[in-house]
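The records we work with from here on pair a chain with its fold. A complete example follows; check for yourself that the lines match position by position.
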Amino acid sequence: MDAIISQLNLTSQDLLGLQISGLAYVVFLITHFLKPRLAFQFSCLILAVCAGLTQGFTFGGVSNTFADMTQEQLYDSGFASLLLIITLIALYNNAKTPLILGYILHGGWDYLHHHSSSIHMAAATPLWYPLFCCSYDLAVALTYVFVRYPSSSESRSKSKTH
């Protein structure tokens, strides 16, 4: 295991992010199988919070006007808005497909935003946060890909046939 970790060049902060992600995912998984609707709604809430955190981290508590925004802040703001819209669509339609898309986009965004050698972004996130988000987001997305979750349209059609 130590050989794998050393080849991945993971820092102690990366490992902390993975550990927190694993713990959060176990809680999600238990909730998902016991109360799938609650887990779905909570997943939507978490994704909306991620949109807010994206905004918070990019502005770092500094009050900027639109004219003073850097290119990174414009990208982050646009991405956060897109993430929020996707989340609202998932919640409104009780549909897992937009939620899966949102989690994949957010996980990929955090990975590229903070771990890509070709893209340098200045957002002030904790060092453990990007790998935490990336791993948790992809795990939740894959859960919704492979585990059935009834959408509202499926629920309506079942109730009409019974």
User: Anything to note?
Assistant: The chain is about 75% helix and 0% strand.
